[in-house]
Amino acid sequence: MDVTVIFKIAAIGICVALLNQILIKSDKEEIAMMTTLAGVIIVLAIIVKMLAQFFDTIKVFMEF
Questions:
Q1: What angle do CA 17, 37, 48 make, to 5 degrees?
Q2: Which residues contact 17 (CB under 8 A, 6 or more apart)?
Q3: Which residues contact 30 (CB under 8 A, 6 or more apart)?
């Protein structure tokens, strides 16, 4: 696991949180919810990609 992935996920979280607060203060709760949902989907995509790499590594390890 690389440290840059943790920083990337943290940066996405901070950006989504800031954008969410700005949109809520502007009385655009629906758009804020969609922004939060998009952030969660992006982070889940990163995690799924990492899990796929992990299982590929385990598969290669078990072949020996």
A1: 105
A2: none
A3: none
Number of structural domains (the chain) is 1
The domain in which residue 37 lies consists of 3-62
Q: What is the DSSP string of the chain?
A: --HHHHHHHHHHHHHHHHHHHHHHHTT-HHHHHHHHHHHHHHHHHHHHHHHHHHHHHHHHHHT-
pLDDT one-digit tens code per residue, 8-60? 999 999 999 999 999 999 999 999 999 999 999 999 999 999 999 999 999 99
